C-alpha cells in the first residue's frame, strides 16, 4: 500500500497515504490493493503521536494513553455479509477509551482551552450516553479537569459505572421527556453549568470540533486504508458529527463518488420520525443537532430495535466482534445497501463502540426476553400464546391518553369489557417508554363515589403506576409472577406493548390446553 490510485484525488498536504500507527502488514488483497492491517505489532512506529523524550533505540512508547486514539483497523465481515460486495467494518472499540468518541474529546477540549472557555481547574459538564464521557474523562485526567456527566436513564448501569471508574460524577435523568423539559438530560446539564463555578459544556451536539475531528482523522484513515476504493460509507447518526465529518472528507476527496448512508433507529427524526423513544443507545435524536449536516447523507435507513439487537448478537457469535447495539444497527443498514451493490463496491461501516457495556442488556437473554425480543419454545406455552387466545373482536391494546377525561376512560373500559388499561402518550404501535401509567375501573369508580374525582377530570390526575411488563416469549408461569401484585400485565413484543393479559386470561389458557 504505497499511495492512492491514479484515478483518486491525492490526500491533503501532510497526510500520509497510509495511516501510520499500531498496525502493519499486507492485509487481505483487494485486486492489487491491500485492505486491513493484521495486528503484527501493537506499538510500531507512531510518527503522529507524542513519543517519549528519552526513548532509546529499543524503547518505544507514548506519553499518554490518549496518544493512541485513531488509526483503527478495517475488518471484513464474512459470515453476516453474504452479498458480492465487500463489507468492511471500521472497529472503533480499539480506541483506548473503547469508542469513536475518543476522537472528538481531545479536539473539543483543546479548542475550549484556546478560546479561554475552559481554564485550569475547571469542570467539564456534558450530557452523554457514556462513550463521549469516557473520552472526555481520559483527556481531563491528563489535564487536571473535573468531570460531571448527565446520562439518560436508558443508559446501562455498566456504562455509568465505567464513567465513575474514570473518576467522573454521574447524574441520571429520565429518557421519556421532551428536550425542553427541566428534567431532560440537556436541561439538567445546562443548569449544572450555571451552578458550578468554572464549568464548561463541550456540547457535542453543537460543537464544530466534533465533525472537524472526523474530517481530519476518520475520513483520511478510511480513504488511505482502502486506497481510495471505498464506494459507500455507513454510520449511525447520533450527534451527526461522525457521519458529517467523515462523509464530508470522503465526498470531497472522491469528487462525490462515495455514497454516505445514515443508519437511524425507527422513531428518530433523521429517518422521518418525531423523536419517539427507542431502545438502541447512543444514536438517533428527537431534535436536529447543528453538528449534523442535513445534506451529507445520500440515503438514510431506518432500523428497528429488534433488527439492531439481532445483528449485534450475530456479530459477536459469527464474526467475533463484541460490539454495542448501535453497531448492529449500522451493520443491518450496511447489509441492506450491500444487497443491491456491485461486486466491485467497497462498503465501509463504522462500528462505534464495544459490547462490554451492554452485557446486562443486549447480550443478556433475560433482558431480551423481558422486552419480547426472544421467543424460545416453552412446553407449557408462552405469554404470547395467552395473548393470542384472547377475544379477537377487541383491539390488541385498549388504551387511553393522559389528556382524556375520566368519563371517556370509563366509557372505553365498558365498551371493550376490560377492567384496566394503560395510559399512553402516543398511538399504537407505541414504545414501552411512552406508557405513562394505568387506570383501573374499580379505582376510578371508588374515587368518583368518594368525591375525589369528577367525570370531567383528566385521566392523568387519577392514573396509577404503569402495569408490570412481560415479554411475549416468556413462559406462562412468568405471567403469574407478574400478576401476583397487579390485575393485569402489559405484554411486550420487540420492545413494544402489544396487549394486556389478566389472571383470568392465564387461567383460561391453562384450562384450555
UniProtKB/TrEMBL annotation:
Keywords: CBS domain, Lyase, Pyridoxal phosphate. Its EC number is 4.2.1.22. The keyword Lyase applies. It catalyses: L-homocysteine + L-serine = L,L-cystathionine + H2O. InterPro entries: CBS_dom, CBS_dom_sf, Cys_Synth/Cystath_Beta-Synth, Cysta_beta_synth, P-phosphate_BS, TrpB-like_PALP, TrpB-like_PALP_sf. Pathway: Amino-acid biosynthesis; L-cysteine biosynthesis; L-cysteine from L-homocysteine and L-serine: step 1/2. GO terms for molecular function: cystathionine beta-synthase activity; transferase activity, transferring alkyl or aryl (other than methyl) groups. Residues 42-51 have a biased composition (Polar residues). Belongs to the cysteine synthase/cystathionine beta-synthase family. This is Cystathionine beta-synthase. It comes from Saccharopolyspora kobensis. The lineage of its organism: Bacteria, Bacillati, Actinomycetota, Actinomycetes, Pseudonocardiales.
